[in-house]
């Protein structure tokens, strides 16, 4: 890495060691920012989980309502079929005989 830096024309600069007070201040600032970042990330995760749970509950409710409507539709179809089966013999009995319908 040093050779590559020298080939590119960069020279290393001497870095002065930090005094104890500056190091403690930078460490405290870094720790504070890490805590804020962690709390922010946790809030984002909790909000995502909350919204995902709400969406899942909403989908479950819609699926249950749809299932209930389908069951009701099936029951109504069965009732309609039963009524149609009962109505067919009645309508065939109500028709007058063929010889009475022709005018004389």
UniProtKB/TrEMBL annotation:
Q: Which domain of life is it from?
A: Eukaryota
What Pfam families does UniProt report for this protein, alphabetically? OPA3
Keywords carried by this UniProt record:
Coiled coil
What does this protein do, in the record's words? May play some role in mitochondrial processes.
| GO cellular component assignments | mitochondrion
Q: What is the protein name given in its UniProt record?
A: OPA3 protein
Q: Give the coiled coil ranges.
A: 52-86
